[in-house]
Structures are given as structure tokens and as C-alpha cells.
């Protein structure tokens, strides 16, 4: 932050100044002044129009709030500033509003310093296997288990679910409603992993990106405006009293972050310390406002051999998540005109027949009721004039065997293979497929609503009338009505032969026996900061 920009704004406000006067006031030469103005213009801070000829005035328009930039600059390194530097800062031509905010930051920093105790925590490293290193950790990307794991452990959200499943404030001290305006009062001791303080403008920026993002804006249609109304207060204005807003702010896309040198950093228990082709190193966030983690370093590797070598010398227990965290299913393209409903039902029967022959525990199978309810269709009743285009994952043995089974039944197929990684980053419309097999993480109580927020399912089904209705119910109706709406939505998809639930997958986790309090949270993602490491 160049303080001269603030001095310039104050000096020329409401007055005509010559270049010589401005240069003298800023203690620079006329040539240096010209270079500074050009530099600030190139940085997008001002619009500078030089006057040509005698008597033609130059014009400077400020494109940003200079005073707010001073506050951000002050936030960035308050602990490193001396009393003299703070005194000089307060002598600058700042509005009283800004000076009061600076005083607030100083008081908070002093109070936090008094409350902080210096402990030396033992280092403890752990390694976890992931299928690939994500190219981006932005919360608004299409989330998969690997990206979700990183976001859960490096970023925080305004609200979270406690162990009982109740929504609790996390980055918020308290909230208050006034008609259709929700005011969030933020905690004052929250810092990003680079040491800068999280303020209301940071939060408002993240939330505004969320509610205007193409993937999520439908879920915030009743939100009119989000703004920072104070240093630590955020106002969310809706077209009505939005009961569901707190729950939406618990989701991973609602994580709070900021961009620094092309990286996304958060306020969570860990920060990204090192990235290599096959590994990602997370270290404890030294500025984390909550409890310090027992696991201080977490290595994420895509090398199974390296991971197994790491665990080989350690005893581990196998843990099963209590909740169902992913589902294998098939969906039909609702926009494709190559298949009619009878053909879709016939294909659904054949797909369920295949999985019924594979056995497996009935507790994990999800299609038995659907299979028994569908009227059987004889082979000679259905004719396929065109090949059915099916998109399957080449790393799924079931998918590969299923295509062989369907072709042996006389169904003409055009099989398109893709990897799990490529499947994540492609858009389903680009595949032009009639049917795809997918495995998606989900929350049992909010299956379809969750998928309509963030999954491949959303890419084909988001614009359907039934999807719009489901979103409306979640936004405008009481939570007690949501399970019924979910059931009706699923029934409709199955009656139209657009969705085949195959089986659920209970994820198993391997951890050393000395690890306690291992609790996979939403979507089966483990928060490693909550693990307690005991004596082996």
C-alpha cells in the first residue's frame, strides 16, 4: 500500500492543484510524479487523463476506496508495527470512521496477545492416500472427495454442524434478524494462514462470489444483497426471511478464503505448505483461532506404494463411517431424444438384473424395491434403431462387465470410456451420452438437493421443472417438509426411468490404533484437526 496515494487523494479533494504543488507536497520530482501516476493507473487504482497544452487540467479519478486499502494494509501486519509506526499512521488524513476501526484492531490485537499462551507442541506427521492431486482448491470448483478433503482441512465456514447434527456458529459470534435482513457479527480473532485478519469485507466478497456463481446462484435466488456493514459485521438482505440460509452457509462452497499469489488460503486448521507432482504437504496453521491439532503435518500422496510403506510398520484399525457417504448409480440424459421411456425402462431392468446377479449384501443394494415395482418388458417388445451411447469409468470393473452384459443381451451400445479424473472435469453435455454411471458422495437426508447443488447429476437435471420445485421447497418451506419432497422427487425420476440407484458404499478408513476421535463428517470427509493422538 503506497501511502502517497492516500495523501494525493486528500490533497486534491475539492481543490485545483498544479503539478508542481502536488509534487512538492508528496516530496517527489515532477518526473517522479508522472511515473507514480502511470504506475497507479496500470495497477487499476486510478484513471489518469493528462492535460495537453497550457490551461488544460489533468484529471484523476480514484477507482478504489483508498481508506479501505489502508485498513487492509494495517490488518496485514499489525503485530509487526511499532508504536511510532501506528502513531504516524493515525496522523494520516483518514476519516474518523477509519481511525475508529484502526483503534478497534489495535485493541483486539492487544487483547488477543494477552490471552495467548506460548506452548511447544510435539510434531506428529501422518500420510493419507488420495487418487489425484487437484489442480485447484477453489471452493466453487466442482467438488470431489480429494478437493473436499483439502478444503475441509484448510478453510472454515461461518456455520458448522456439531456432533449432534445441529447447526452452530463457527466464524460468527452471534446473529440478529431485522425483518428480512440477517446481520452476522464475526469473531474478531480469526486470521488467514498468512496472518492477516479476516474482516467483514473478506467474508462479503466470498459470499457474493458464491451467490452469483453459475453453479450455485439458483440456491440463493431469495438473497438480494450481501455487504459488509461494519468492520466485523455482514448484512444479508433477502426478499423474505430466509430460514435456510444458515444451513447453506455450512456447505463447502461457502468456505471463506482469499487469493494470494495465485493460491487460495483459508482460516482452517491447516495450510498448504508444499506441492509436488505426487504429494501435497499440509502443515498446522499457526494462526488458527481454534484448538491446536495433534497431527501437525499431513502428507497427501497419490503413490499407493509409498502410502502402504508408511503404514506397514504401524498398527491400524479399520473404521467404518456410520453414515452412507457415496452411491453408485446410473442416470439417463433427460434431454436426449434417442431413447423413449419404454427403452429407458427396459435398459433400467437390464442394468438392475446385472447387479442383482452380482450378489452383495441386501443392506447395500438400493434397487430391489424399484426392480420389483417395474413391470417386466420382454426382449421382443423393445427395438433400438440407434446405438445407446453409454459413458462409463474405465477404472470400474462393474462398468466394464456391465457393458459386456448389455451387448450380450442384444442391446447396441456405443461405449465411451473415461477416467475418474477426466469425468470430474468434463461437462456431461459435452459427452452427448444417453446414460452414464456415476459414483457421487452424498448426504442421505438431502440426496437430490445436495446433488443439485454440486455433482455431475446437476449438469443434466438442474433445469427440469421438478428440480426447480425441489429447490423452491428447500428455500421456502419448513424443514419438516423436505424429506417428503425428496421422496417425491426420487419417485418421479424412477417412474420416468431417469435414475437407477444401484448400491451404497460405506467407506472404510485405515488409521493407527493410537488415533481417537476419528469422525468422518459430511460427505465422509475427515477433519484431521479433530483427531486425538494417544500413546501407542
Automatic annotation (TrEMBL):
Q: Enumerate the spans annotated as Transcriptional regulator SgrR N-terminal HTH domain.
A: 19-105
| InterPro entries tied to this protein | RmlC-like_jellyroll, SBP_5, SBP_5_dom, SgrR_HTH_N, WH_DNA-bd_sf
Matches recorded under SUPFAM superfamilies:
Periplasmic binding protein-like II, Winged helix' DNA-binding domain
- Say yes or no: keyword Transport present: yes
Extract one GO molecular function annotation from the record. peptide transmembrane transporter activity
Q: Name one Pfam family in it.
A: SgrR_N
Identify the keywords attached in UniProt to this record, alphabetized.
Signal, Transport
Tell me where in this chain the Solute-binding protein family domain is found: 181-289
Q: In which domain of life is the source organism classified?
A: Bacteria
Task: Write out the GO biological process terms.
Answer: peptide transport
* Protein family per UniProt: Belongs to the bacterial solute-binding protein 5 family.
The name under which this protein is listed is Helix-turn-helix domain-containing protein
Q: Which organism is it from?
A: Macrococcus equipercicus
